[in-house]
Structures are given as C-alpha cells and as structure tokens.
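Reader question, answered in our methods column.
A reader sent in the components of a multi-part assembly and asked whether the whole thing could be modeled at once rather than chain by chain. We filled in our standard form and ran it. Here is what they sent:
COMPLEX SIZE: two components
ENTRIES:
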Amino acid sequence: MAVEQVLRSRNVWTREERAILEAAVSEYRSFDARATILRRGASIEVATLLLEGFVSRHVDGRDGLRQLVAMQAPGDFVDLHGYPLKSLDHDVGSLTPVKLAVIPHWKLWQIQNENPDLARKLWFLTVVDAAIHRKWMFRLGRLKAVQRLAHFLCETNARLFAIGLSDGRRFALPLTQFDLADVCGLTSVHVNRVMRELRERGLCTMRAGSVEILDFAGLMRLGAFEPGYLYLNDDVVKRLSAGEKMELSEDG
Amino acid sequence: MAEWKEPFQPSDDAGAASAEEGVVILDGPFSVAVTFTPEAALRTSENLRLAAKLAREQRERALRKEVSGL
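And here is the structure of the entire assembly that came back:
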C-alpha cells in the first residue's frame, strides 16, 4: 500500500494532511519476517509508518522469554512515541515481511510548528497506543486463557476492519502459535488448546494464517471485548457491531 | 460502571487441570494460565497439598484464639 492509501483507510486525516505526511516521507524500508527493526535503547531520529505487514513491540526478559506488548497493523505509526523520547524502551520487530515509510523527526518538528491540527492527530495516535497498552495489561492480568485469545482476535478484527483488511468476519493473521503465545502470555500448547476450544464453541476458526469469526457477538462476550478503547470512528463501530460485511481492498 | 470489588480475594474455585500433548495445563481460577511438565505438575500438587494443610491449621488456630478470647 502507498502512504496515501494507508492514511486514507484510517479516515482520520484530511486530504491536505495526507499530502503533508506523504511529502514528509524521506525513504521506504522493507524487512523480511522476523527481523529486528529497532533495538531497545538505540538512538532514533526518524518515525516509521507501517504500510504493509505486521510489526511487534516486544520486551525480552533476562531469561530470554519474550513478551509481545503491542502489535501494529498497516496505517499505524510504529514508533511515534520515539519522537519525544529519542529512544525506545522496547524492541520493534517484523512479524511478517513489512514495508515502512520513514519520516525524519525534524520533519515532524516542522509539522508540529506549522500544522498544530495535524500534530494533535499524531498525538491522538500515540495516546490510542497507550489505551491499547492499558487494555493489553487488563487482558493479561484479569482474563482467563481462552478469554485472552478471544479478546485479541476481537481487537485485531476491529482494527483491521477499520482499515479495510478484515471484512468483519475474515482476516489474514500470519502469526505463528508462538506469536499468539507471546501476545497472550501462554505456552504454545495452551494456545493450541484454546484455539480448539474456540472452534468447538463455534466462535472462530484459525488456519493457515487466516482467521474466520463465526460468531462475533459470542466471541466479544467471551473475551469481554468492547471496542471503545480503540477510539475508532463511530460509523466503523456501528458497522462492525451490526455484523455488516465489507468488501476487502485488493491488499486485504 | 461495574461494582468495584477488592482484587484477588482468595478463590473458592479450584483451578482446572488437563493433560495436553504431554504437558499439564492449569487454567484458572482468575487469570491463572500455566503449563507444567508432568514432573513439575506433580511437585506443584505436592506443594499445594502441604500449603493447604498449613493454611487450614492457621485458620483453626485463629478460630481457637478468637473463641478463647471471647
């Protein structure tokens, strides 16, 4: 996807703002799956917008165990919080092959000074990231294993629906069982069991990198999911809740 | 808004243990989600049994103290 297309799908930006952001891109970078894009503590002077694929923010423990603390989808800024922080307290890695658009921090500074409305929208994105982080903490701290996966799948469906990469019921999620285990704080065997339980309950099936939700309302109930913390546009939430199916874009 | 409850009260529900692909999965109560090797599961069950015995004794001591103090 091109920058303009990715930004358009999110329906946050005006045409002029999309043009400003596209003009701010200095280069494009591609990574294979399972590459480290940014290391914790490294000095950074650019922000990256994810155009294609999935990216993780993760923290590695001293025991070598990894915890995924966020997953970014196309249209997300991967490291906008690095603009004021100048380095990250976590690693960023590609879960799939990815394409990124790079925007230098000095251009963000220029936007901040010349276009406060656009700067406020960029700020909005980072605080939505924080809202999602809070929900991920809730998920790990309060939900049972099967609820954690149900919640994650509902969240991913809603986020991908908002950018046209889910039709509301089906979406590509090329994550391994190990990735899902890292997201949910479970072992891969436990994830396997939970996936079977979701299938047996008639809520959703997962195979070959794709998810099919059979009963979204039931999956939402089980996962205690409500999409308010994603701060999606009202019309997106209405269409999603109503079970409206959407035609997928070519990239979907 | 849901009624606020004091977090992590002792659970009166037992965790559900199951065997899966040669390991033991403990599910619940609350957000407990642990996978053990069979050996670790056996050691954990013994630790739990001993701790439960001690906890019962603590309760009984506390009850005796309460009754004798009346």
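What stands out: Chain A has two domains: 3-117, 136-241. Chain A has a mean pLDDT of 91.
Send us your own complexes using the same form.
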